[in-house]
Write a structure and sequence with these properties.
- By secondary structure, the chain is an alpha+beta fold.
- It folds into two domains: 8-252, L-amino peptidase D-ALA esterase/amidase, CATH 3.60.70; 260-378, Roll (Ubiquitin-like (UB roll)), CATH 3.10.20.340.
- The protein is built from eleven helices and 14 strands.
- Strands 1, 2, 3, 4, 5, 6, 7 and 8 form an eight-stranded mixed beta sheet that branches. Strands 12-11-10-13-9-14 form a six-stranded mixed beta sheet.
- Helix 5 (188-201) runs parallel beside helix 6 (232-252).
- The protein is globular and about 65 Å long.
């Protein structure tokens, strides 16, 4: 059984933008695909963001070329020309128009691309196109420790996605690179509407460190090669399944992280805002790293979110290692075994559950902060 959906080929090559691993990737559709994207909201953004937004404005695209090791951001007019040149090189390699090629970049900010290397890399990736997604996945990684992919098969169609992201991750669009393919037949307008909802419910619920990158984008391609035209709800469910899986993988692979942390808040006028504030609190995240059931830090973060709630009605629990421990209830600490909770928190998956009354539930996916995060980011440029 093929891993990737029908109508797509992937390729990757190493041109030397990074010290190791592939650093140029190509994603190619047999013909024009329906496409949509969501992009960083950062005012400081790379040339590839504006370029790709323009490419998919009509809901159609044929291919994607991506490089890692260099963000090509804050590089002026030369950076814009280099982005356009990447599209031209990819178009030449696969036989299409540059206007049909999206461009993505990731890596260090403020350095011009070595276009001689990029040119060789795109040509090599074009020669290496095939059904194996691994060379492409390898080509998009930076500080990631692991490759990230997810697949769903339903109703005669396949959805497959890959992503990169480990640091500079915050829920403000997609905050990483994600590329999702499906062989469903989907009209561009419908795909765009569904993609924005799916991204909002998955990638926008992700944070590692609260920083929104300059290069973030999440693109979806629909080749139509299966001949299956799904119901909107079925399409949305399949895309959500894949993107939520990728979201959790990125959180678990956060720079220096040892565990995935899900923050679940129920009730109040804005549970999402409260959950995000808790998830981005350095004090909460370091407590999770230290396996410290410090419930005061969690309530503190919730209380500074700007959303009103009554602490007297709050119930705070931690779920980990198959155990559920209530730490705070009725305005006072609950009776719990701190040593046992600390042991449970050694799990690689922890759920912080804060209930503030009746109402909607919101979840944010994050990770702990460990020594590795400081080391990686302190030494990233030097």
């Amino acid at each position: 059984m093929a891993v990737i959906p029908k109508g797509f080929l992937l390729g990757g090559a190493r041109c030397g933008l990074k010290n190791r691993r592939n650093d140029i990737g190509l994603l190619v559709c047999d013909g024009l695909a329906s496409g949509s994207g969501v992009f960083t909201t950062n005012t400081v953004r790379a040339a590839c963001v504006d370029y790709t937004r323009a490419v998919i404005a009509d809901g159609r695209l044929r291919a994607l070329v991506v490089n890692s090791g260099n963000a090509n951001c804050c590089t002026g007019e030369q950076g814009e020309r280099d982005t356009a040149r990447m599209a031209e090189l990819a178009a030449d390699a696969i036989g299409c128009r540059p206007e049909e090629v999206a461009v993505a970049s990731t890596g260090i900010i403020g350095h011009l691309l070595d276009m001689a290397r990029v040119e060789r890399g795109i040509a090599a990736a074009g020669q290496a196109l095939g059904g194996d997604p691994k060379p492409f996945m390898d080509a998009i990684l930076t500080t990631d420790l692991v490759e990230k992919s997810a697949r769903a098969e339903t109703g005669g169609g396949v959805v497959y996605g890959v992503a990169k992201g480990s640091g500079m991750i915050a829920p403000n669009m997609a905050t990483m690179l994600a590329f999702v393919m499906t062989d469903f037949a989907v009209d561009p307008d419908l795909l765009g509407n569904v993609w924005r909802r799916v991204s909002g419910a998955t990638f926008n619920r992700l944070t590692v460190d609260g920083d929104t990158s300059t290069n973030d984008m999440a693109l979806v391609f629909a080749s139509g090669a299966s001949g299956v035209r799904p119901a909107e709800s079925d399409l949305e469910a399949a895309l959500t399944e894949v993107c939520l899986d990728l979201t959790r993988q990125i959180a678990r692979d956060g720079e220096g992280a040892t565990k995935l942390v899900e923050v679940v808040v129920t009730g109040s006028a804005d549970p999402l805002r409260i959950a995000r504030t808790i998830a981005e609190s350095p004090l909460v995240k370091t407590a999770m790293f230290g396996c410290d059931p410090n419930w005061g830090r969690i309530l503190m973060a919730a209380g500074r979110s700007g959303v009103l709630f009554d602490p007297q009605t709050a119930i705070l629990s931690l779920r980990a290692s198959g155990e559920d421990h209530t730490l705070f209830e009725g305005g006072s600490p609950a009776g719990f075994d701190a040593k046992r909770v600390s042991t449970a928190l050694k799990s690689d998956h922890v759920v912080i559950d804060l209930r503030l009354g009746e109402g909607e539930t919101a979840t944010i996916y994050t990770c702990d902060f460990g020594y590795g995060y400081v080391r990686i980011n302190a030494e990233y440029h030097t």
